[in-house]
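Quick look at the format.
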Amino acid sequence: MPILLLATYRASTQFNTHPLSHATTTQIMLNDFTPKQARRLIQERLGTDQLPSVLEQRLGLRDRQGRESAVNPLFLEESLQMMLSLNVVAVDQSKYGDGRLRIDEARLSQMHVSDTIYTLLLSRLDQLPAAERGLLQVASVIGREFDLATLVAISPGLSRETAVELLQALMEADLVQQLSAGLLPNYLFQHNLIHQVVYQSLTYARRQALHANIAEHIIRQAGTCCPRSIRCWLTILARQISIGRV
């Protein structure tokens, strides 16, 4: 039976692309958005692609001299999300279903939009409520993919119900997504870069302490699992010890 496998990766000197050079594989390079592609995304999000030049400049569609420029898709998405969350940009829906774009020029002039993805994501993290930010930071130490049970187990004083509520808010903010529900819900950071930024926002000592807590939790869990599950837990344990040097 034919199988189609799709995979994404970030090009680097450590990544071996030789297996992808066979005739049965096709590589598709994802480049920055052209201004036309960027405006298509804006049209989908805001209902219009007719934006003032100053707003286009803040979103990366124009350079400092006002010339059109290619823009990183993640940067554009996160910039839009930040402006919407701060009510700098809003769409007033009419009873006919169409929307009118409203821009708070005073807030826009005072708003600092970072010119790099890393600092932009860090700014979004700083604007989160303390409880949501703290939960996200703990989750980042578990990994880009994390489960609710481990998150609650290594977070003293955090109930399962509170964790679910905080995760729901983080999903609404497009920072994480739920992979599976049921008794053992799993979650995933929306982007690998978001995971990296959140993880690096923790102090080294805090990361070390959390890695140690996760390792202890895994050891306790492994003692009650079947041999196949134990092998899986040991793999995760090795990763925590390797990264955290616990």
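Next, a different chain entirely:
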Amino acid sequence: MISTVIRGIVFLVMACMLTQPITSQAASAQNTFLVASHQGGGGITIGTQYRATLTIGAVPVRASTTSTRFAGSFGAILDVARSGGPWLTGIAEGAIPPRGGTTIHVHGADFLRGGQPTVTIDGLRATITAQTNERLVVTVPFRASPISTPGPGRRGIVVQNAAGSSNGTEAVHVLPSLRSEPAAAPLVPFDIVFEGHAGDVVVWFLSPTRLNTVVPIPGMLHGLELDPSLLVLMPPVAITEASGIVRVAIPALAWSRPLLAQALVLSTDPGYGPQSFTNVTRL
């Protein structure tokens, strides 16, 4: 472990010495909406707590002497027994800094019907400052060590009361974060998408190997997750767009095994500055 930390510190010194930015493309941020799905054989499907009816709206677009083709779309009617358990449907202000104190709005139904609710984000208990049956106003928690929590990337939220619970496994988006769009595949071009704030400097690095545990580095949020002995560094990106979201285009390449990407972010933003790691994304 000591040798891993030493390699990690050497890597970070090298990363911070890089200063030449490359161009990037801006995108826009969005709130988080959660959906659920059920697969059935069509018509009416009855579960232990619901009754789902498949419907279709269609109009004829072509007819012959033997058949008629319809164009339309499917919908569903869902009748749910009200057991008192909460239903989580969406998060407003879904992109947040990790240091806590940010207010988010949790939307859904029956939050109070089964008693006083509790909310956890990435396993940490959050503070509810206002509540109705359809909305909870929540202050995001923060734990500084040993590894800062909530971690970067998409994190889970759980709303629970005495009658049940509702989970959103990737509902809260913690900054700074990385993702690949579309999902990377050999010989297919894709983008590495960074989300943070304007003014950030992002040092990207790639590796085929992930460490067995997150290695914390003093003075930096989160920690190093990739093997520093196998890292490939990319030129840093200076974030100039107001949205804080940039895309770096990766050309179509052939590889025999997936690569992993992480980034070190140098920032003046109080939410995660002066230095923070992102999550790891699979390329």
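DSSP finds one helix and 25 strands in the chain.

See the schema section for token definitions.
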